[in-house]
Design a protein that fits this description.
Elements (H helix, E strand, L loop, with lengths): L6 E7 L5 E7 L20 H161 L1
Antiparallel strand pairs: 1-2
GO cellular component, one term: cytoplasm
Organism: Trichonephila clavipes (Golden silk orbweaver)
GO molecular function: tubulin binding
Length: 207
């Protein structure tokens, strides 16, 4: 048996003079779900089946055409990317070769300048060595006799100084010998004088 909701209405008057209804009702009961009956199946004719098959075939062909079109676009994209890659690699190789050639030419110029500077320094050094050599030979040829004369003069002077030194030393030796002789004579005189004086003192004491 179906239950109906019971509503309790009360009238309340607000301060503004308006009236409104307050409805208090019980919770609604659970309603049963209505089951919708499925429509009756219709009989399908052969022409309808053929139409459906034809429509399905058209959809399949359309899907196949779309897939082939997508594959062709992807293939064209791959070919375009490959062409762009090849052109990029070609441009990169060209730029790299140009940069390498520039660097090699600059390195060659720097190397030539460096070799020229080294060769110039070697030539200057060789000229300086030759100048010193020629100056040395000139001095040796022109001043060899003067050097020999100076050496002979120095040798003679050294010999004279040596002879004078020997003579001076011999004089000193003779003076030393004379002094030693005089000292011996004085010593002997003193000894004899001492002996004589002691003898005289003894004789005086005996008298």
């Amino acid at each position: 048996m179906r239950k109906f909701d019971t509503n309790l209405k009360s009238f309340t008057e607000s301060k503004g003079g308006l009236k409104f209804d307050v409805v208090i009702s019980d919770s609604p009961s659970k309603r049963t779900k209505k089951v919708i009956p499925s429509p009756n199946k219709k009989d399908v004719s052969l022409s309808e089946i053929e139409d459906k098959l034809e429509a399905a075939e058209q959809r399949r062909l359309s899907q196949l055409y779309k897939e082939q079109n997508m594959r062709s676009r992807r293939l064209n994209r791959v070919v375009e990317v490959q062409k762009n890659k090849n052109s990029f690699i070609k441009r990169f190789k060209t730029k790299a070769m140009e940069s390498y050639d520039k660097k090699m030419r600059a390195t060659g110029r720097n190397r030539e300048a460096y070799l020229k500077s080294i060769q110039k320094k070697n030539r200057d050094l060789l000229m300086r060595v030759n100048e010193i050599k020629n100056t040395t030979l000139f001095l040796r040829d022109n001043h060899f006799d003067t050097f020999c004369r100076k050496f002979e003069t120095a040798d003679k002077t050294r010999q004279i100084q040596f002879n004078s030194l020997e003579e001076h030393l011999s004089k000193q030796d003779r003076c030393i010998e004379q002094l030693q002789t005089q000292i011996l004579e004085i010593t002997s005189l003193l000894q004899s004088y001492t002996i004589n004086s002691s003898n005289k003192n003894k004789a005086t004491d005996g008298i």
